[in-house]
Amino acid sequence: MSTKTSLSRRGFVALNAAGAAMVALPSAATASTSMAETVTSATQVGPFNWLTSGAAELEVHIGRRFRFQDENGHSTAMRLIAVEPVNSGPNRPTDLPRAEGVIAVFDGQDAASLAEAGDRMYRVGALGLRTASVMAGPTPRRDGSNMIEIVLN
After folding, report:
1. Is 135 left (phi over 0), alpha (psi -120 to 50) or beta?
2. In terms of CB atoms within 10 Å, which end of the chain has fewer, N or C?
3. Shortest CA distance to 114 belongs to which of 137, 95, 132?
4. Which residues contact 86 (CB under 8 A, 6 or more apart)?
5. Residue 151 is inside which H or E element, if any?
């Protein structure tokens, strides 16, 4: 007997709240680069940690390109276009690593191919930021196209 199991981004977050933003070890290139020394298009890279940072720390990166890499090594560049804080109020578990949840929305030329792949794990990072394994998936627009959303809890 076989059972088909399906897991959405939000379901993944609900089941693995503390691990939704599993922080990976930095690569040799990013480990040797100081954030204070990294400058991208005349804007200093702000402090950001995939595991603990909230919306305010991620908002400074709106407009930056992030690299999404799937388990097969295929990479896609996506631009961060919006950040939304998720205030859970008193119902938020106190043992979560960040004070608020964060929804990060990305768009780019390859958004359709990522949307077609559905909800899945990607290694996501940007120049000067560590990479992390996160669940990402499509969010529909009114025009029928999709953006890519990451929920950090």
Report:
1. beta
2. N
3. 137
4. 100, 101, 102, 103, 151, 153
5. strand 146-152
pLDDT digits (tens, 9 = 90+) for 16-69: 433 333 333 333 344 333 333 333 333 444 478 888 899 999 999 999 999 999
Specify the residue for token string 């990976």.
Answer: 24
Which tens digit of pLDDT belongs to each residue from 136-153? Answer: 999 999 999 999 999 998
Provide DSSP, 67-88: EEE-TT--EEEEEEEEEEEE--
pTM of the complete model: 0.69
| Tokens encoding 142 | 């009114």
Q: In this structure, are residues 126 and 66 in contact, taking their beta carbons and an 8 Å threshold? A: yes
